[in-house]
Design goal:
CATH class: Mainly Beta
Distance between the termini: 56 Å
Shape: elongated
Number of domains: 1
Radius of gyration: 21 Å
Structural class: alpha+beta
């Protein structure tokens, strides 16, 4: 009887330790994120699931073209692409991104822009008034004509960034690390 009681308490301790370790990892290291909507197509699609690295920006700064998840408001987290960093000037003209008045290629969009032809602007002309403020990033969805992003909500505070998108784990046939 004492042996069964000891085994029972051993299992309880193991479960408690596992729950604590899981909570610590989800609070400080990684979390999962489910894409909701079409704003990042063709890079990500509604319902896809990702692991988000919460440590990446505690140890470093966002880089241009990183995919990030950030707190958009009390009820919603968004996935977007970092386009502008603090101090950058941003504009789009004739479907070309200019950062600090230099044309910057967006290789992740080349295929979809080419498929739509030259008669149609994938990204409407836009110019950020002033520079991206210190402590903020300028983000866009890859589906430029169907994205609620910095063009409407303004630059995103770095403190609101949850983390960098890392591994796509659903659907299984698309599993892999995001670039």
């Amino acid at each position: 009887m004492a042996e069964k009681k000891s085994e029972f308490w051993g299992w309880i301790r193991a479960i408690i330790v596992a729950v604590i370790v899981t909570l610590v990892i989800q609070t400080f290291v990684i979390t999962s994120f489910v894409v909701s909507g079409e704003s990042m197509e063709p890079t990500t699609y509604n319902g896809e699931r990702f692991i988000v690295n919460k440590l990446s920006y505690r140890l470093g700064e966002p880089e241009r073209f990183d995919l990030i998840v950030f707190k958009a408001d009390e009820n919603a987290d968004y996935i977007k692409r970092v386009i502008g960093l603090p101090g950058d000037t941003i504009r789009y003209e004739d479907d070309v991104l200019y950062v600090n008045d230099e044309a910057v290629p967006e290789p992740f969009l080349e295929e979809v822009v080419a498929a739509n032809g030259s008669d149609w602007a994938y990204t409407e002309d836009y110019e950020l008034s002033g520079e991206v403020p210190e402590g903020y990033v300028f983000v866009l969805g890859d589906n430029r004509n169907n994205s609620l992003d910095s063009r409407r909500i303004g630059p995103v505070k770095m403190d609101d960034i949850i983390g960098k998108v890392g591994l796509r784990f659903w659907p299984l046939n698309k599993m892999g690390f995001m670039e």
